[in-house]
Design brief:
heterodimer, A: about 100 residues, 11 strands, B: about 120 residues, four-stranded antiparallel sheet, about 55% strand, globular
């Protein structure tokens, strides 16, 4: 199985801060990675697909980068509604695997 | 709009089976895969398996092979996931999700809580 190591597991930030979350794959996965946001009691929603493509309707302050084994999600200016948990998902090979999540608080 | 509507919460005893349904609407059902994902506070998100909604093929995570059965009913645009020989560790919220071929999950159902307890 491909292991997805996500860091940090949590971070403390303020409105207006730039936030970066990283996922590292245990083997190369091209750009077969998505980023998701989840708020308590809700289903996740996709922010980024194919590592760097912004999902329609998602604010442009969210961006993704990376390829191969190193990926990152950046929020350029944190907004109050962005306090949530974020996680990555690799879909390069079965079984698909998730990062452990990063709670932004 | 795309909707994945799942069946309601379940409470089961260890050793029993659970069957969860996922009814899709708002898109061409047979053009996508349905993936099942579960979430627990301790283990986070875990991919369970996938089925080609048109009925073409099924893959499960190795740890679930032999215990998970995925089926699709194209006449009602519904996918079912059945898990057998339940253990307490299977207590989780189970999500039905959609993904085009070769792309990550784009829509999620509302989740179905499953509690396994004696």
């Amino acid at each position: 199985d491909i292991q997805m190591t996500q860091s940090p597991s949590s971070l403390s930030a303020s409105v207006g801060d730039r936030v970066t979350i990283t996922c590292r794959a245990s083997q190369a996965i091209r750009n077969d990675l998505g980023w998701y946001q989840q708020k308590p009691g809700e289903a996740p929603r996709r922010l980024i697909y194919a590592a760097s493509w912004l999902q329609s309707g998602v604010p442009s302050r969210f961006s993704g980068s990376g390829s191969g084994t190193e990926f990152s999600l950046t929020i350029s200016s944190l907004q109050p509604e962005d306090f949530a948990t974020y996680f990555c998902l690799q879909h390069n090979s079965y079984p698909w695997t998730f990062g452990q999540g990063t709670k932004v608080e | 709009q795309v909707q994945l509507v799942q069946s309601g919460a379940e409470v089961k005893k260890p050793g029993a089976s659970v069957k969860i349904s996922c009814k899709a609407s708002g898109y061409i059902f047979i053009n996508y895969f349905i993936h099942w994902v579960r979430q627990t506070p301790g283990q986070g998100l875990e991919w369970v398996g996938t089925i080609n909604a048109s009925g073409g093929g099924v893959r499960s995570a190795p740890r679930f092979e032999g215990r998970v059965t995925l089926t699709t009913d194209t006449s009602t645009s519904t996918v079912h996931m059945e898990m057998s020989s339940l253990k307490s560790e299977d207590s989780a919220v189970y999500y039905c999700t959609r993904a085009p071929w070769g792309v990550s999950i784009d829509y999620w159902g509302q989740g179905t809580p499953v509690t396994v307890s004696s």
